[in-house]
């Protein structure tokens, strides 16, 4: 099976990337498999900048094409916070439970109609010696009054996607992967790969991983 490096140490992202790339017979390897000591500073002010920083640093380090994801939650009534700081919202220890608790506290007196938010995901593909490609996907929704469900990761227990009455953590992984911000970003990467495929190159060859 072909392999593709995704420059992340977030196990929730790894699971979702693995599921989404398995249909191309591509096995996703993450920094959790390769080297947990690697730490890339996210110094960008946008999701796209951070995704590019992570993908390019690792493509240079490993000398092969690398994919990276920078994502987070934008809450309208908080002027887009926690945004690029979503992982570190309640502190550098990146505790999903504490982040969610802090968010619910910030929103405790905000009525349902003003709890609109979106998940944002930027996915970058960096290849040594070639220009980097980055695309954004979003998933609109609202923030629940209290956490519900145990699937997914991060803010999933408090995020209700548009058109649903359940939180993301009450959706199965198949359901989440059909509507998520990550799915929409990867779909655009796939569109780009299809253009390449139409020129006679396979998906895997585009990533140079076969
Ligand atoms: O409920 C959620 N469902 C999702 O689908 C999702 N995607 C992202 N997030 C949140 O946004 C942070 C990303 O920050 P982030 O892109 O810097 O990732 P990270 O630091 O966890 O890992 P890495 O990829 O940088 O190694 C994460 O920690 C999460 O809190 C999500 N929450
Ligand atoms: Mg990070």
UniProtKB/TrEMBL annotation:
Coiled coil: none annotated. Transmembrane segments: none annotated. Binds 1 Mg(2+) ion per subunit. Mg(2+) binds at residues 41, 70. Keywords: Hydrolase, Magnesium, Metal-binding, Nucleotide metabolism, Nucleotide-binding. Pfam families: Ham1p_like. GO terms for biological process: nucleotide metabolic process; purine nucleoside triphosphate catabolic process. The active site is at residue 70. Its EC number is 3.6.1.66. Its cofactor is Mg(2+). The keyword Hydrolase applies. Substrate binds at residues 8-13, 71, 153-156, 176, 181-182. It comes from the Bacteria. Belongs to the HAM1 NTPase family. Homodimer. NCBIfam families: PRK14822.1, RdgB/HAM1 family non-canonical purine NTP pyrophosphatase. Pyrophosphatase that catalyzes the hydrolysis of nucleoside triphosphates to their monophosphate derivatives, with a high preference for the non-canonical purine nucleotides XTP (xanthosine triphosphate), dITP (deoxyinosine triphosphate) and ITP. Seems to function as a house-cleaning enzyme that removes non-canonical purine nucleotides from the nucleotide pool, thus preventing their incorporation into DNA/RNA and avoiding chromosomal lesions. This is dITP/XTP pyrophosphatase. It comes from Halobacillus litoralis.
């Amino acid at each position: 099976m072909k392999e593709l490096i995704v420059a992340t140490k977030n196990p929730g992202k790894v699971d979702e990337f693995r599921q989404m790339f398995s249909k191309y017979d591509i096995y996703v390897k993450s920094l959790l498999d390769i080297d947990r000591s690697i730490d890339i500073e996210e110094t960008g002010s946008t999701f796209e900048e951070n995704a590019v920083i992570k993908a390019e640093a690792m493509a240079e380090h490993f000398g092969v094409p690398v994919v990276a994801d920078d994502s987070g939650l934008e809450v309208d009534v908080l002027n887009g916070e926690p945004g690029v700081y979503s992982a570190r919202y309640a502190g550098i220890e990146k505790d999903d439970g504490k982040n969610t608790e802090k968010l619910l506290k910030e929103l405790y007196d905000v009525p349902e109609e003003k709890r609109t938010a979106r998940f944002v995901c930027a996915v970058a593909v960096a290849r040594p010696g070639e220009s980097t490609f980055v695309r954004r996907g979003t998933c609109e929704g609202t923030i629940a009054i209290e956490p519900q469900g145990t699937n997914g990761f991060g803010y999933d227990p408090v995020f209700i996607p548009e058109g649903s009455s359940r939180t993301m953590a009450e959706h199965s992984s198949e359901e989440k992967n059909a509507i998520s911000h990550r799915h929409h970003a990867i779909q655009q990467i796939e569109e780009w790969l299809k253009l390449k495929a139409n020129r006679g190159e396979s998906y895997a060859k585009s990533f140079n991983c076969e």
